[in-house]
Every structure is written in structure tokens, then in C-alpha cells.
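Whiteboard transcription, Tuesday session. T.W. wrote the C-alpha cells on the left side:
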């Protein structure tokens, strides 16, 4: 009878320590995003801390693995929303639209100049 009580006692110790170990594991996750020294995300990527690791995702206007991000050429890819009478210029992380000569507007909408 005593052996059964002893066995149960050890079982409780093992189970409770397992729980403690799990708690320690969850609390010991390192936030690699806190410092650029701890992650290898590209400067144009957003770092997201995860349990036991981290993720890098390129910012809008950039594409790649997150460790490497290259500018999206919106003028080439067709993502640019320039007016038909505007010239598209690719920039790092974006693009610009400028109305062609003889047209006036913000590049998204261009209308003929009145003389
Ligand atoms: Ca982490
Ligand atoms: Ca671009």
C-alpha cells in the first residue's frame, strides 16, 4: 500500500515539473525583433516575433523572402494606377505618376490644359 502512495507521490512530482518546464519554455522565448542584431530581416521588411523563432516579411512595395527585399517595379508590373496621359516612374518602395506635356493633374487624373 505504501508503495502505491510513494509511486503516486513521484508521479505528481514528475507531472508538476513537466508543467514547470513547459512554463519555463514559453517564458524563455526571445523576441528577435527587439534588436536588429538578433534577426536578419531586410531593412525594408517587418519582423514578427514567433514562439522560438521570428518571421520577416517585405513591406508594401517590396518583394522577396524578407531577408532579401527588392523594389517592385509597379510601372512594369502593371500595378501602377497612372492616368493614360501620365508617365510612370518607378521609385524605391513606390512609384510616381506625372502628367505628360499638355496635361495637368496629379498623375492619377490628367486633363488637357486650356489655353
Ligand atoms: Ca521569438
Ligand atoms: Ca517601386
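and on the right, the sequence the group agreed on:
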Amino acid at each position: 500500500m505504501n508503495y502505491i502512495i510513494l509511486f503516486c507521490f513521484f508521479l505528481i512530482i514528475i507531472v508538476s515539473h513537466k508543467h514547470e518546464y513547459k512554463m519555463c519554455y514559453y517564458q524563455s522565448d526571445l523576441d528577435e525583433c527587439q534588436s536588429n542584431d538578433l534577426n536578419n530581416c531586410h531593412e525594408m521588411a517587418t519582423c514578427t516575433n514567433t514562439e522560438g523563432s521570428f518571421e520577416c516579411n517585405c513591406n508594401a512595395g517590396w518583394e522577396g523572402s524578407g531577408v532579401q527585399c527588392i523594389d517592385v517595379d509597379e510601372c512594369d508590373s502593371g500595378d501602377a494606377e497612372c492616368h493614360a496621359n501620365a508617365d510612370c516612374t518607378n521609385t524605391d518602395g513606390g512609384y510616381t505618376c506625372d502628367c505628360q506635356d499638355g496635361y495637368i493633374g496629379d498623375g492619377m487624373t490628367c486633363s488637357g490644359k486650356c489655353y
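Someone added at the bottom: The chain has a mean pLDDT of 87.
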